[in-house]
Amino acid sequence: MANFKAVAAVFVVLAVIFGTGTAYFLAYPAVTKTTTTVTTTTTRTVVSTQSITSTVTAAGPPSATVNIAYKSGIGFYLTNGTGFSLYFRSTDKPNTGTTTCTTDTCEKNWPVFYVSNLELPPGLNSSAFGVITAYNSTKIATYDGFPLFYWLNDVKPGDTLGQGIGGFHLVTVPAPITSVTTSTTSTTSSTSASTSPAAAKVQIPNGASSNQSSLGNLGFYPNTITVVIGVNNTVTWTNNDVTTHTITSLSVPAGAQAFNDGSLGPGSTFSVTLTVAGTYEYHCAIHPWMIGKIIVKSP
């Protein structure tokens, strides 16, 4: 009987414990904690645009001793291998083996250009170059028979400060065969930037009016030029002679306009922009042995 009472007491205690636990869980149900992780991804699109604008140059091989450069308002002209401008003197007569730059001042301000081994870029013909020995035994390189010089105050490549000083002028040349373009690039697009049309220079040297034999066929310098539409198809003539000349067309391509300045006095200039491809021939109506040619090419 005692044992029965003890067992009954145990069941009573368990019932109380179970009832209490059930009441607790009913009052405080289990809580499930959910953690939500939000990941934010930010995407940046960076568009990088690089513009390249430079003076157009027709660079030759690394060993080139003569090169071609281009500058707006001048056209294509000769430089040495490191980019220093080369000049000729309009008072010099070509193919005579002499120069009028003989005073101490002239020799100081206009050092001569000479190289023993001539290396040229595409577009220049070695037959146009030569060498003379001046009165003081100094060797001078020539182009189209004209002795070549530097200007003392051109202190860095690309300087053209000697243009027109003391009768000296840049040695302008036809547009080179190889083309060099200026471009603008970006990560999303690519465009081309063309150079604004500029002037190709033609000189009338001093003495051009004397007679045909004095200058050969070089009444205009250069006698023949090649220009490209949209690059340097404006041609400018400068009269460095002591008398009046004309720039009068003899023949022009079909669809092109004839041109005639009428009268080009000493020191004056005349310009014409040629927009039709083809060959133009012109002369001086006062001195008809002076004949020049312009070859105009499409871009």
- Share in β-strands: 25-35%
Radius of gyration, Cα only, in angstroms?
41 Å
Biggest beta-sheet profile: 4 strands, mixed
Average per-residue pLDDT, rounded, comes to 75
Number of DSSP strand runs: 18
Structure classification: alpha+beta
Q: Segments where pLDDT lies below 50 for 5+ residues?
A: 23-60, 178-196
The coarse silhouette is: globular
Number of helical runs?
3
Distance between the termini: 126 Å
**What is the H/E string?**
HEEEEEHEEEEEEEHEEEEEE
Cross-sheet strand order for the largest sheet: 13-18-17-15
Defining traits:
Immunoglobulin-like, 12% helix, 299 residues, three-stranded antiparallel β-sheet, four-stranded mixed β-sheet, 3 helices, alpha+beta
Describe the structure.
The structure is a single chain. About 19% of the residues have low confidence. The chain has 2 domains: 120 residues, no CATH class; 119 residues, Cupredoxins -  blue copper proteins (Immunoglobulin-like). The strands form 6 sheets. It has a 4-stranded mixed β-sheet, with no helix packed on it. The protein has a 3-stranded antiparallel β-sheet with strand order 1-10-11, with no helix packed on it. It has 299 residues and is an alpha+beta fold. The longest helix is centred in the N-terminal third of the chain and has 26 residues. The radius of gyration is 41 Å and the shape is globular. A hairpin with a 7-residue loop joins strand 17 and strand 18. It starts with a helix and ends with a strand.
